[in-house]
Amino acid sequence: MRSRLAIATSTLVVLIIIILAIIGGAVWYFMSLQGGAQYGGVIKIGVTVSLKGKFQHEGDLALKGMQVAVKWINDHGGVNVGGKKYNVTLVYYDDESSPDRVPELYSKLIEEDKVDILLAPYSSTLTKAAAPVAEQFKKVIVSHGGASDSIFQQGYKYAVQALTPATKYLKSIVTLLKEQNDPDIKIALIYENTAFSSTVAKGAKAAIQEAGLNLVYEFAYEKGTQDFASVIEEAKAAGANVLLGGGHFQDGVALTQQAWQLGWKLKAIGILVAPTLPDFYQKLGDAANGVMAPAQWEYGVKYSPDVAKNLGVEWYGPTNDEYIEMFRDMFGGEPDYHAAEATAAVLFAVKAIEKAGSLDSDAIRAAAGQLDILTFFGRLKIDPQTGLQIAHEMVVIQWQNGEKKIIYPEAAAQASPIYPATNWWQR
Amino acid sequence: MTILTDLLINLTSGFLWGTVLGAVSVGLTLIWGVMKVVNLAHGESILLGAYVVSALYLFLNVDPLLAMFVALVSGLLLGFAIYWLGLHKIIGHVDVVTLRIEMSTLLEMFAISIILYNIYSFLTRSEPFGIGIWHLTPISYINLGYMSIQVNHLTAAALSLVATFIIYQFISKTPTGKAIRAVMQDSQAAALVGINPVRIKMLTTVISIGFTAFSGFLVVLYESAVVPSISYKYAPLAFTIVVLGGLGSIIGSYIAGIIIGVTYGVSKVIFSVLVSKNASDPLALTMAFIILVLTLLLKPEGLFGVKR
Description:
Chain A is α/β, with parallel strands linked by helices. Chain A is built from 14 helices and 16 strands.
């Protein structure tokens, strides 16, 4: 008898607890969903991505990066715009890496899909085809893969940049050299004669001059060059002990390899693009050690909410670990900088809308000019006039004992720089 | 979005694009109809005008409305050069164009097309080039409620109508225009009544390429920015339109351009419902060429052409 009563009572108690928990959970869920704010609707972000053609690889990663950002934002309560909660959605088409498809598709995004804000396609070339359409329709367009400065020198009012412009690619390495306080630095600048690398070299020269360092040799080689012997001999003869330059993967590897084989004694080597890829070490072995390279973002950078606090700027978006985990969960692979810069562009766009408190393009653009945030990708702030990115710093990596380490800026670094590069200088 | 608004949007933008396509094809119908020269360099002639206007605007800040006349003149000069350097020796003194001669001129124009294409690619590094933020009126777009339209698209449509009207009047009313039509109908008979066929052929080439270069301005208005490969989008469509409109018919070309534009718009809606939104553009473009096949089978002389 007693035991049956006890069972009935305890069942009742358990039932009541379960019911209370369900009601409480539901109330909590709806409270958290609305966050006290009214639900406003969905913000449409329009973009074309390259899923076919020569930017297929980068385009695929960029799209995944954007999708991670959208999921993160919606999972964290969406965006608060003027007291109303909005969710975010991505509207995209495949531009097939072709600049003649881009204007039509961007018109379609604006005219038919009525998107609220745009992201640019991957690469400077495609961005140049999209920006005028955005301008005609007065839609803010955030560039995530268009590093070229010239996009922002054409008077576009609505184009803004979420990654470091090409002229600043080598600036971080030059700053790093300056910080070594070495009176005997003689730089040779050897770079590929293409639109991108020439722009990078132009910026590097300005940075070298500004830092008061010594540029003793400069040469622009044609696309496809594989033989650097004569150039290297000339640079050696000019007394150069620091090599900066390169272009793409093949020529970057060839330049480094021949500098090594010809016994060029160097204190520091900074090469574009090639050293950021794992293949670089596989191809060059010990010669790769000591070589530095600039990168928009690297796996393992140390930007965090604490760093934001020290810098006195607002933190927004996932942390690095959170980001990498989300990316793995959603797609099963590893993000690279193409994905990271696209994620950052979405975060920047959404934060600008939130700050504007409105979906009006002029208000968003004005707010974007005032924004200063730290994300897992780095600090983001644009020049209010031109839209050019001014705060995001390239991280610098250096190969140390067969491992790629982030050495600059300090806020993101995993290791301290090895200077002079022992294996190159003392041989 | 309902299918009805979708249809309305695509009808509007298809119509506007069609007017540009029509104007782009007028130059081709002249040189092909009058001289039997299959101008494979048509796309590159369009690009000449587009690049002249863009370069003048970007580097010298010349208003595109002024620069479009420079584009016209540059096209006239290119036409002059093409005739005397390329075509005169082959067709200048020929009354009846044989297949062999047609093949020679076709190859000639093909070579010119490749030369121009590579020069453009070299000069622009294949980067998009255009008139960027320029627009005619203080506002850059108009909100119609169901869609927004760029003022530049409306400007292009209006200019295409005016320009086509002017060249039509020129061909049908002026003595030179009548002489051109006479040579088109019968070169030998025209010579008998005192028309100098060489002069007329030269003029036709010059006017045709000149007008085509001018239409390049309409293309850059429509596209905002152009790359060399855009000639692969416009030139094949122009050939379709000329066949549909009838060889040598200016009005025919203009109307056929609008037909192709509207067909493209409507097919886009159909394919986006039937297949997917992403597939609708390329599939809709194939419709234009299905029309080409049907025209050749059912009405080879075209809508406004003369039966021979």
